[in-house]
Amino acid sequence: MKRSFMLLGILLLAGCTLAPKYERAPGEVPPEYRFQNLQGQPQAELNTLADLAWWEIFDDRELQGLIRTALTQNYDVLLAAARVAEARALVGVSRSLWLPQVGGTYLFQRQRLSQVSFPPLTPGAPHTGNINQFNLDLFWEIDLFGRLRSLTEAARAEFFATEWARRAVFSTVVADVAQAYFELRTLDQQLEISQATLKLYEASRRLVVMRFERGMVSRQDVAQVDALVHTAGAKIPELRRQIAQKENQICILLGINPKPISRGRALPNLVVRATVPAGLPSNLLERRPDIRQAEEVLVAANYRIGAARAEFFPRISLTGLFGRQSLALSDLFTGPAKIWSIGPTVTLPIFTSGRNYFNLQATKALKEQTLVFYQFTVRQAFREVADGLIAHAEFREFRKEQEALVKSYLDYSQLANLRYKGGIESYLAVLDADRQLFTAQLDLAAVQRDQLLTIVQLYKALGGGWETSDRPQRAAIPISGPDSHTGK
Asked: Is 258 within 8 Å of 247 (Cβ atoms)?
């Protein structure tokens, strides 16, 4: 009876762990983001931009199709999924050590005994013979001080870290595809501007040549308009090269061979949200996959301290053997051939030359490293949101000014052409106006692109983009969820 109570007590104690209690320590969290008041609406009335799924942000069917393809075929996505599967399996490996391990062995051995051994052989006994043996071996480590439990909790935290890393890959792929698509549409827009400008320059050249043939202008005017034509003409093949290379880049993101990419809305028609709600900074700790990943790595390091502490205490294991042994194979499964043994084994670390001590110090130092990296990740996230907010706010003003600049150069060009045709102005003024108008139109396309990219980068910085519309909910696993040990 006493032995039964002792065994029950050991099994109850086996559920404990020597790991320090985990407490979230992201450092100081600001009450609001810097520059969030530039969005023009009270923060309390707004949900975060990241609460919207990516298909609600990027309202372009072709872009949505590209993102869906990338989320299923992108090589980084596939690699991240494989890492999650590996980490899940390692949790199972770690949990299996909690349970008894049973193995079977069969041994056949032919041997010759010494004739001059001590004690001497019985007269007439054979010097050679066979041994047949079949064993069932039992090994069960009773996790009295939580070493195995701590290692399993660490493996589980690492599994959740890989899961959050996979979601971070989703967010990155969504942002990368959207950015590449917006850059592609910008190049398309600039190519259209260059082609339209080239036609206008060629028409101007025909007019100047006609006036030159009539002796109304000098050869210098013809050379100047030729320079305009060649400036626009040289831009076209360069843009075509960039477009083809950008399409190839998108194909790699999609996990397919290089081919043309279908287009949706033109660059000026792509929607940009007028206001961008950022939410609360404290919510960023929950939404950003990279922050959650860094925290799970920290949790794993915390549990490894518990496993290192347990190394100072005895290990208790239950070992057993049941089998049969006989000289003749025909007697192996008879009653007299039966053998068995069972009993506890206690291993006590008496002197390890400091190995356990330094191993504990190393695990504590590793936790400090992961804590610093976690806090750095949080700070970096706040910086990215602040950068995105100021960029989005200022690019709205930048775009308005650039549009006004294009209109001014357009008026300047029209007036210069009218004055030139009327003989009031030299062609140098027309040349200057048309050249600056062309540059301003190309710059406006770039500004429109950059304004769209501020949405992409801010959406990613706020922790959005890892939701997928066509994938099932996270599959259940035979362990508790990621929030079970972090108190979140």
From this structure: yes
| Mean pLDDT of all residues in 94-104 | 86
Return the SS3 of 258: coil
Sheet holding 101-112, edge to edge: 101-112, 128-142, 315-326, 338-347
CA distance 84 to 332: 47
Residue type, 20: P
Residues 403 and 435 in one domain: yes
Residue 3 belongs to a domain:
no
Tell me: do 412 and 387 sit in the same domain.
Answer: yes
The total of structural domains in the chain comes to 2
Q: Are 76 and 159 in contact (CB under 8 A)?
A: no
Same domain? For 243 and 108 the reply is: no
Tell me, yes or no, whether 260 lies in a domain: yes
Task: Examine the pLDDT at 244 and tell me if it is beyond 70.
Answer: yes
Q: Cα(first)–Cα(last) distance of the chain, in Å?
A: 43
Q: Which of 61, 186, 191 is nearest to 448 (CA)?
A: 186
Q: Which residue has the tokens 């304004």?
A: 451
Query: pLDDT (tens digit, 9 = 90+) per residue, 272-317?
Result: 666 677 778 888 888 899 999 999 999 999 999 999 999 898 888 8
- Residue 479: which of 217, 122, 91, 202 has the closest Cα? 91
For 212, the token pair is: 């030159």
The CATH number linked to 115 is: 2.20.200.10
Please check whether residues 92 and 129 belong to one and the same domain: no
Q: Give, in degrees to the nearest 5, the angle at Cα 238 between 266 and 223.
A: 110
Task: State which of 323, 348, 373 marks the end of a domain.
Answer: 348
Tens-place pLDDT, residues 421-453: 777 777 778 788 888 999 999 999 999 999 999
- Bridge partners, 324 (sequence order): 134, 338
| Block residue for tokens 């390692």 | 90
Residue 335 is part of which domain span?
101-142+315-348
